[in-house]
Amino acid sequence: MTTSRLIRAGLVAACVLIATAPGAEAAPLKNIVLVHGAWVDASGWKGVYDFLVKDGYSVTMVQEPETSFADDVAATKRILDLQDGPVLLVGHSYGGSVITEAGVDPKVVGLVYIAAHAPDVGEDESALGAKTPSVLGKTEGAINVTPDGYTYLEHDKFLTLFAPDLPRPDAEFASRSQVLAQKSVFATPLTAAAWKDKPSWGVVAGSDQIISPELERWYYERAKSKWIVIEGASHSVYASHPREVADVIAEAARSLDK
């Protein structure tokens, strides 16, 4: 074989390797998985879900049992396993801790934090929240604990602290349908922090009384997230401002799809 033919053969082989290499032609990002926070369930994502589906995304919600941090991470991974391509993983509140741990899954290509915790390895949200206390943390008697160790918000405090910007009937329903969360879920140290290796976005709820907006900013700045503030929004920002939240998620998905 002549030298020129050898060179041409080498170039062809290199092109074949590039074309067949894993990730050479990444699948378009269409899958979004939404993870709720403590004391609520996935129904609160309905408005965000509707907007994202209208925008053409395949959206799945995780229903966490809130029986342990490990159980909630496992529930999230179970849903990730069902996805047929790359995933943008979104978490609200305590769900931010869950996606931080579960987000190391190879299918996850990016993270979005909505008024959420984002601890590092060895950290837990309870200790971090105590260092930057919220209105909830300063309100005596707001959190109740059952004899077997499950937490819930006192009804009136749920209305005034968790969901003050929701229509009253919606806030009443959310309070009366609370998912009681095992108190250990808030104090379990993380063993992984996906935001260290994957791009992230964040939403600060400007009038959040459950997690301090200052703490939310600190999390996002540490993670080098792209983030915005939705002024006047409560901790229920995902339900009270679904269009704005969906826009942040869609922008993240578009950025990852380039």
Mean pLDDT: 91
Radius of gyration: 21 Å
Low-confidence stretches: 1-25
Q: Helix proportion of residues, in percent?
A: 25-40%
**Major sheet:** 6 strands, parallel
Account of the 3D structure:
The chain has 258 residues and is an alpha/beta fold. It is built from 10 helices and 9 strands. The protein has a single domain (27-256), classed as Alpha/Beta hydrolase fold, catalytic domain (Rossmann fold, 3-Layer(aba) Sandwich). The strands form 2 sheets. It has a 6-stranded parallel beta sheet, with helices on both faces. A 3-stranded antiparallel beta sheet has the order 5-6-7. α2 packs across α10 (242-256). The longest helix has 18 residues, at 3-20. Mean pLDDT is 91; it is low at 1-25. Residues 1-26 form the signal peptide.
Salient structural properties:
258 residues; alpha/beta; Rossmann fold; six-stranded parallel β-sheet; three-stranded antiparallel β-sheet; 9 strands; globular; disordered N terminus
